[in-house]
Amino acid sequence: MAENSSNSEYWSANVRIILISLVIWAVVSFGFGILLRPMLSGIAVGGTDLGFWFAQQGSILVFLALIFFYAWKMNKLDAEHGVEE
Amino acid sequence: MSQFAINLMFVGASFALYIGIAIWARAGSTSEFYAAGRGVHPVTNGMATAADWMSAASFISMAGLIAFTGYDNSSFLMGWTGGYVLLALLLAPYLRKFGKFTVSEFIGDRFYSQTARIVAVICLIVASTTYVIGQMTGVGVAFGRFLEVSNTSGLLIGACVVFAYAVFGGMKGVTYTQVAQYCVLITAYTIPAIFISLQLTGTPIPALGLFGDHAASGEPLLMKLDALVKELGFNEYTAHHADTLNMVLFTLSLMIGTAGLPHVIMRFFTVPRVADARWSAGWTLIFIALLYLTAPAVGAMARLNITEMMWPNGGIDGGAVTVQQIEEEPRYDWMATWQKTGLLNWEDKNGDGKIQYYNDKNADLQAVAEEKGWEGNELVKFNRDILVLANPEIANLPSWVIGLVAAGGLAAALSTAAGLLLAISSAVSHDLIKGAINPAISEKNELLSARIAMAVAIAVATYLGLNPPGFAAQTVALAFGLAAASIFPALMMGIFSTKINNTGAVAGMLAGLSVTLLYIFLHKGWFFVPGTNSFTDADPLLGTIKSTSFGAIGALVNFAVAYIVASATKETPQEIKDLVESVRIPKGAGAAQDH
């Protein structure tokens, strides 16, 4: 039983990290890159605005950071809950 | 040495390299085709996956689509990289823990149903075949230019080479061949971009050059480009013109589709540990990002170069390029070379000896044209798919760079096309015929049916590739829509919900696939046969939603149908719930097993 409750804690911690990461994922691409671009139009970046930068460059960099953050965080979480291989 | 000989040398040398590595790796180990990724470091695996993933669509087609549309086509950049976040967070670690080799096996086991497995195989075949059509379009462009023949002959020759390459076989599974292909591909893509970035902005890093200053005018590059194309009546490069809803759905379709395409997911089944599956996704995206951060710079800089070549004396007032210049000046040689492929053409409509390139659909420019006596845009054909391959010639780069790009383009197109054909043939022979129709089939006949399936797939793809439903990247986008609507929701629900049962999953996949396929066929023609469509993407059936964007809606239909049907039918049995529990926990993952 003890193991099961630890497993379900592990799973809800994982789901929480996934949700936070996906919110960031959506905000930089669909948000800053497309829908919120008019709001960011005042911020100039190299001859255009911040929204354009997010759509063509920034979102990709954030995606990279997210995947590495998730891998690091989850590998740590595995060890904390004793579920690593 | 002629350019033709140089191209031949580079292409030949790169092929010799791949084959050499394949033979060396074969001799060095007895590991089988499936075990390709096992015991391989996540960095190496990431590089190989990146080569597998980046096809003619990424290499040949994407920058051209961005160049001629600008910001509105950013969807390709965000979509084809953002999908890796979904893959890394929602699928890869759990599928690795599950420990089988194919997507359809996971779906069959998790939904405890042979029907679910077969439906998954059908979804896989439909999406992969559409994907191959897009690859064949790219192969046709590359071979047409490289052998200096028409696009059609290039496509037919290319189809034979792809077929031979795929039949030659398991070579695809050798990780180090793919590492070599990645190296050729990325060098071929970045070297011309670095040269061009240096010429235009003085910055050796194209991604920085894109947001840097244009050296000749001192203005920011993008501002210069905006002004230049606006003067000719085209949409400003950095501005948002496309429909926002369609752009959001299109980006989402590409993202979900990335996480639903079996040939990419498969790579994560065979890494040594669950932790490695997480890291591998990150390394893969790093190697992909090297190309994807360069692509928008390639697009913008090429657009600037082409526009300035057509108006060599500083915009409309300086006058257009003359026919004599195009025929005689060496820096215009690329135009004659590409004219031979039938993918580029110009015509002096008003007979003034000059070629005016402008947007003749724009009312302001029509007024200018009337005043100056122009009779329509005279750069009558510029196929988007030629841009990347023509780019080094347009920028007047040394011949060896042009040869390198030819080798890179072919590496991208051939490796992915061959990989997809292998996936289709094994799905038909192994999953469909042996797994369902005739389990007693002999090994020899299984192999024969695999070959036949491969031949049929390439024949279909070549036939449709002659009249493709779009540019390479657009056709590939349709394949992503199909994968998004069918495979991804089933995988995700299989991991994150114990509620979804066998009937729910089957109903969801069938609903998602058929509604998306229907929408695509209504707009692109039944089975992509030209002229059989009832709607066009310019005026789509549902509001502003184009057929390339429908995958996201198909996925939503899949989720909803699966949920409703599962609620109304028998609950998931306990042993399957236990299976889902075990997939969620990394502990106890053994090596991937054959069945």
From TrEMBL, chain A:
InterPro entries: Na_symporter_ssu (IPR019886). Pfam families: DUF4212. Residues 8-84 form the Sodium symporter small subunit domain. Keywords: Membrane, Transmembrane, Transmembrane helix. The chain crosses the membrane at residues 17-40, 52-72. This is Putative solute:sodium symporter small subunit. The lineage of its organism: Bacteria, Pseudomonadati, Pseudomonadota, Alphaproteobacteria, Rhodobacterales.
TrEMBL record, chain B:
It is a multi-pass membrane protein. It is found in: Membrane. The chain crosses the membrane at residues 6-25, 77-95, 116-133, 153-170, 182-200, 247-269, 281-302, 400-428, 448-466, 472-496, 503-522, 542-566. Keywords: Membrane, Transmembrane, Transmembrane helix, Transport. It comes from the Bacteria. Pfam families: SSF. Belongs to the sodium:solute symporter (SSF) (TC 2.A.21) family. NCBIfam families: Na_symport_lg. This is Cation/acetate symporter. It comes from Shimia abyssi.
